[in-house]
Amino acid sequence: MLRADATRNRNQLLEVATRAFVSADDTETSMRAIAREAGVGIATLYRHFPTRESLVDAVYRDQVARLTDGARELLAQLPPPAALRCWMDLFGDWIATKNGMLDTLLAMIEAGEIAHAQTQTELFAAIDEILNAGRATGELRADVSAEDIAASLIGIFTVVRPPDAARASRLLNILMDGLAAAPAQAAADAD
Fold this sequence. Notes:
mainly alpha
């Protein structure tokens, strides 16, 4: 178990690394820059994350956990369509995080160090959780799969890159319009 200060340093490093990876311009952020931004020495960074791969892995897993946990948390607070729309923003954040760690991440997936199939399964389950809740209330279409949503989101976030958040939001809203259950379907599902 980590001491309180060690836990704080680790969390700070993860937070800074995530921000650094988001803002990177298709280049990999240096470990030294991450340590400096986090306000710790490079030795502290390497004590928590001995390699760049271990830092990328930790950021990646943290982001996947935010997505999977986020689905449940959003459903507890919002109606299913609003939860799905908010979750789409989380997904966009996850995609943006990959900017500054893409080369390392792809090499790790290729080497089998990150189980891409497992991540996909977890993300599909999170989407399904929201879709099923929306189907149960008659608010979301019954003929849409988690795979459909994921493919749509990847398409949107491949075309629209930060800082064009307004365009991404507009496209996500259009997608949500297409996911709404038709009035006749919603009435039939409610009966």
